[in-house]
Amino acid sequence: MKIVIRPQGTMAIYEQIVSQIRQEIAGGELTEGTALPSIRALAAELEVSVITTKRAYEELEKEGLIRSVAGKGFYVCAFNQEYVREKQLMEIEKRMSELVSECKQCKMTLEDMKKMLEAFYLEE
Fold first, then answer.
1. pTM of the full predicted structure?
2. Cβ(21)–Cβ(59) under 8 Å?
3. Domain residue limits, the chain
């Protein structure tokens, strides 16, 4: 599992963790029954607070993507692919709305935004 934290990003750190684990589950990198790092181990690895990783795991558990097994840790659950995709799309829409607002504040035209998006999309 590879999680990259961007401290200067617009998303809270726990949201970045949730988003990236959700993406790995949806993408099949994390499959049903896969054990996740302990809360403390993940916090140490990412150099963030234990409270932050605990909140991220709680959010994923609320969504039904992971489950806690007493004394053993957290495991990936069987999940509804459509539900995960819908959650991802909602998150993208929220961030995109914020970005469009920022672009408008900078007096960017729709054409400028399209060119920038295309440049990032084709960057790989």
1. 0.69
2. no
3. 1-79, 80-124
| Burial (CB count <10 Å: 0-12, 13-18, 19+), residue 22 | buried
b/e map 69-108, b = 16+ CB within 10 Å: eeeebbebbebeeeebeebeeebeeeeeeeeeeebeeeee
| Distance, CA of 60 to CA of 78 (rounded, Å) | 13
Helix (H, G, I), strand (E, B) or coil at 75: strand
Three-state DSSP class for residue 35:
strand
CATH topology of domain 1-79: Arc Repressor Mutant, subunit A (1.10.10)
For residue 6, the one-letter residue type is R
User: Tens of pLDDT along 51-71?
Assistant: 999 999 999 999 889 999 998
> Tell me: the pLDDT tens digits for 71-97?
899 999 886 667 777 878 888 898 899
Helix, strand and coil percent figures for the chain, each rounded to 5: 60, 5, 35
